[in-house]
UniProtKB/TrEMBL annotation, chains A, B:
GO terms for molecular function: 2-aminoadipate transaminase activity. The gene is lysN. This is 2-aminoadipate transaminase. Its EC number is 2.6.1.39. The lineage of its organism: Bacteria, Bacillati, Bacillota, Bacilli, Bacillales. It comes from Paenibacillus konkukensis. Residues 40-386 form the Aminotransferase class I/classII large domain. Its cofactor is pyridoxal 5'-phosphate. PANTHER family: AMINOTRANSFERASE, KYNURENINE_ALPHA-AMINOADIPATE AMINOTRANSFERASE, MITOCHONDRIAL.
Length: 394, 394
């Protein structure tokens, strides 16, 4: 038959980049492209034990669960958030299938077609996709090394009357940067004044390098309940992605509506994973584990920064990340990284061209490199291969 | 702040019924309301072993998985479907968070606001909710004990040019009925002729009573690929709901678009659950287990039917289900089951009033009773309590 798809499928188009990256699967290509945590640090014995303990509770562990998520795990997360100066009750939290679903559910209940959403320039590509599928108008706010530039944010709020802004203020994907306190407070102030909801996406916040103090989240700087910040995070980067468990916190009104949307979307996320994560909170040194992952990722980051310095590519700029999983490179204007990727794949290395991370007016001379997934030898070889590809286009 | 929700939240409103049923939680109320499988038959030892085996595969089991779902499990399901005369490759299948998510994803990629969807009268309430949240126009087709009445379906296809029809032809929720072969073939024929997509929802098909032959699915009667049927089912009723794993099969074009929509919605469903289900296929007698559940549920159904016969309520009609989890009652016109529910809860028993299962023009004198979740004594007591409530309104 002749299928009559909805208009929405346009926004779910597979990008040229994704098609190129697909080609790299299964081949001896070193990938600096993905956003994968390193398997080496998955606490598999602890997770195995956690699942075994779940079954000790009896057959009811296999029954349908609450849409809101497994109550003891919501309590664990609330306690975990106290360490970040966030105080919420379990009725202010919804558990989701990764934080990706949190973005999707908030978009469903808060955004109508034609609404304006402001985002960082650049920002997380899968968030752009969700907003586009909802037919929102996405407008980028100019950013520097400290976060959104407040004058540009203010001007764009005035001009466009946005309903929401979406930000990753801590160890951003793709740029790896961390916003200064002044930008956090300024953004909050501007949004409060104009009744703009802030979606604060914080998947990487725990992956902080250098042992210093964490920057306060926008959520913790805001009043609550009744505030203008909704905050989402995930266990994917601090425990393991396969368990697909994220959470979103915010005013109970927002949580109630998202919970109803989730009930229609999938009833609830895996209860097995949620129950196992609760057992991990009870019987595993999660914070010791996070410290280990931080140290290891920081070592990899330092190695990659050293390797990049050695290459001496002309007019190439990056910020040394203070956490997270990525280094963001700006190269000479004449380099189009989508074209470069084809050569790089021929040389046996992959990265993500920056173009996908721009909601509008892409910068074609940018790329995102992941430093968490490759081991030391692979990283050396990967950067060498990348260098060979870059030398070809220079 | 003053939250500015999207129009969509209207369709996710909590129903009066849900609010009443919430009141029943934790109290000594016997629930004939839910759609819960019986915990007693959850194969907990096998599931526990399955998870343990997953971890024996090594740390990579905790990494991100494919959006399409764990490949070996898709192969298992394809093989499982051969028993039902369905032959599909793994590129014609997407794994989802329960079949609920399958309905949601198809709706996202196939339905635009204002599109017409035909449904059975009555039909699954959470499907109605998804379609409404997409702002589709839902039109009910008249049904009798054999399924949709073909003359009404034909007239409504001509009149409304629907894009899709949604059906549960085997042991329907809520009506428990099974469509005749003639209605299956007739529906397929009418939809093919008018280019109408059929979403065949089959969560209960395996729960067949009486040991007879299964009715062929609409999917198996259609050509494939390129056919007009998309088919969804789940492990929730044959293994356990906590594992939240369903699947949808159809033409690869449809699967590709749903996969992209799923990538934006949640990247992928729990890989832990999918990998454990694969281990169950390898090391557990799933079909022996399904036989056990069938026998036990059939016994409970017979008990409930006997109890209902004993009550001698006036002008009350039901079909003895040939499978599934529910009995659907039509009572005297003067009984409004939403009003009855309040009295029933006072007596200590709950059911679902039929009104929620109608997309339009609800029949207020209907109710859905679940027979799978209560044990024998509870069921006797539950029907007695229901009888007391009914006697009050008669």
């Amino acid at each position: 038959m002749n299928y009559r798809f909805s208009d929405t499928i346009e926004s779910f188009k597979s990008s040229a980049v994704r098609e190129i990256l697909k080609l790299t699967q299964g081949k001896s290509i070193i990938s600096l492209a993905g956003g994968l945590p390193n398997e080496q640090y998955f606490p598999i014995e602890a997770v195995k034990d956690a699942f075994a303990r779940v079954f000790d509770e009896g057959k009811q562990v296999l029954q349908y669960g609450l849409t809101e998520g497994f109550t003891p795990l919501r309590e664990d997360i609330a306690k975990h958030l106290e360490r970040k100066n966030i105080r919420v009750g379990i009725d202010e939290m919804l558990l989701t299938t990764g934080s990706q679903q949190a973005i999707d559910l908030l978009t469903r209940v808060y955004i109508d077609p034609g609404d304006i959403i402001l985002v960082e320039r650049p920002t997380y590509l899968a968030a752009i996709q969700i907003f586009q599928s909802r037919k929102a108008n996405i407008i980028s706010v100019d950013c520097d090394d400290e976060g959104m530039i407040l004058s540009d944010l203010e001007a764009k709020i005035k001009r466009h009357n946005p309903k929401m802004i979406y930000v990753i203020p801590t160890f951003s994907n793709p740029s790896g940067k961390v916003w200064s306190l002044e930008r956090r407070q300024g953004t909050l102030e501007l949004c409060k004044r104009s009744n703009v909801l802030i979606l604060e996406d914080d998947p990487y916040g725990e992956l902080r390098f250098g042992g210093g103090e964490a920057m306060p989240s926008l959520f913790s700087l805001d009043e609550h309940p009744g505030g203008c910040v909704v905050y989402t995070s995930t266990f994917s980067k601090i425990v393991a992605p396969a368990l697909r468990t994220g959470w979103i916190i915010g005013d109970p009104q927002l949580i109630v509506h998202m919970t109803r949307a989730k009930q229609a979307a999938d009833l609830h996320s895996s209860s097995m994973d949620q129950q196992a994560l609760h057992q991990l909170f009870l019987h595993f040194d999660l914070y010791g584990h996070i410290d280990l992952v931080r140290r290891e990722y920081e070592g990899r980051m330092r190695q990659m920064v050293e390797l990049l310095k050695q290459q001496d590519w002309p007019d190439t700029r990056w910020i040394e990340p203070k956490g997270g999983m990525f280094i963001w490179l700006e190269m000479p204007e004449r380099i189009n990284t989508e074209e470069l990727l084809k050569l790089a794949v021929q040389e046996g290395v992959a990265f993500v061209p920056g173009v996908s991370f721009f909601a509008t007016e892409p910068q074609y001379n940018t790329m995102r490199l992941n430093f968490t997934h490759t081991d030391s030898q692979q990283m050396i070889e990967g950067i060498e291969r990348l260098n060979r590809a870059i030398r070809k286009v220079l």
